[in-house]
Amino acid sequence: MFVQEIGPQAGRVTGEMSPDGSRGWRVDFDPNDPTKGFHINWWKLEKGVYESGANVIIGGTQDRYLEILSHFPKL
Predict the structure, then answer these.
(1) What does the pLDDT look like over 6-18, one tens digit per residue?
(2) For a surface tag, which of 18, 28, 47, 54 has the fewest beta carbons within 10 Å of its beta carbon?
(3) Is 15 helix (H, G, I), strand (E, B) or coil?
């Protein structure tokens, strides 16, 4: 599980991460960047190469983001 460390969802599960932290993803919402909005951040470290990115959810809204988070476990 990935627990958000900063922002309005701090302390909440927002994604998944491998046990060694080498790969993972989290759902996110950026209200200050309309080109990003609702998106999925991802990262991986493989053979010494770190890659990361964000996949934007086309038509995604903050309400949909919060609805999806409601299905994640609470700590």
Answers:
(1) 888 989 999 999 9
(2) 47
(3) strand
State the Cα–Cα distance between residues 46 and 31, nearest whole angstrom: 31
Q: How far apart are CA 18 and CA 8, in angstroms?
A: 24
pTM of the full structure? 0.85
Residue 65 class from Cβ within 10 Å (0-12 exposed, 13-18 middle, 19+ buried)?
buried
Assess contact for 68 and 54: CB atoms under 8 A: no
Query: Given this model, what pLDDT does residue 40 score?
Result: 97
Token pair 């900063």 in the structure block, residue: 6
User: How far is the C-alpha of 57 from the C-alpha of 29, rounded, in Å?
Assistant: 10
